[in-house]
Amino acid sequence: MKKIAIAGASGYLGKYTVKELLNRNIPTLAIVRNPKKLQDLSGAASLQVIQAEVTKPESLSGILKGIDVLISTVGITRQQDGLSYMDVDFQANLNLLQEAQRAGVKKFIYVSAIGGSKYRNLKIFEAKEGFVDELKRSGIEYSILRPNGFFSDMEDFLKMAKKGKIFLFGDGYQKLNPIHGADLAEVVVDAIDSPKKEIVVGGPELLSQNEIAAIALKLHQKPVKITHLPNWLRRATIGFMRTFTSPKVYGPIEFFLTLMAENQIAPQYGRHRLQDFFKERMSH
Question: Where in 33-106 does DSSP place strands (E)?
Answer without folding.
Answer: 47-51, 69-72
